[in-house]
Amino acid sequence: MLVLALLVLLQTALAPPGEDPVAPYAMSDANAGGGPFKGVAMLEAFHGVAGIGRIVDDLVTTSQADPRIGDIFKGQDMIRLRRTLKEQFCVLLNGGCHYTGRDMATAHKSLGIQAKDMNALVENLQAAMRREGVAFPAQNAFLGKLAAMKPYVVTR
């Protein structure tokens, strides 16, 4: 019983520095929206965890400034978004990370995301991967994995 209580406490710990607190939820790598690629080839194609970090930072910065989707990011916890996106990409690319974010449906349910919004985000992600020098076949493989999340992200 004590072990279970400690596990729950760890999963509902205070928000990391700079992040807004969120309601407790069960943390799991399964919340990342898919299983990881096998082996390290994809991680290497993305230039490791450091490359993932650069891609996510580029993606978020570009998307915030994008007139098509920038309003979606207003009022959101951008520190948490950057951290959990980096974790998500790292988990999917088999980088040895753990995902601490909410599941895709819960994370996106109140954002009112439309297909055109997701398309704009994908364009921004493609540009960030291109700037990082990720090869086109690796980009496509990663986008294929992310595409499976569309029903949980697009809500309108």
Description:
There is one protein chain. By secondary structure, this protein is mainly α. It is globular. It is built from nine helices and no strands. It starts with a helix and ends with a helix. Helix 3 (48-65) crosses helix 5.
Spatial extent as radius of gyration = 16 Å
Multimeric status of the protein:
single chain
**Helices and strands, in N-to-C order?**
HHHHHHHHH
Count of DSSP E strands?
Answer: 0
Structural class assignment: mainly alpha
Overall geometry = globular
What fraction of the residues are assigned to beta strands by DSSP? under 5%
> How confident overall, as mean pLDDT?
90
Rounded to the nearest angstrom, the distance between the terminal CA atoms is 42 Å
Question: How many helical stretches?
Answer: 9
- Determine the fraction of residues in helical runs and give it as a percent range: 55-70%
| Largest sheet properties | none
Low-confidence stretches: 3-13
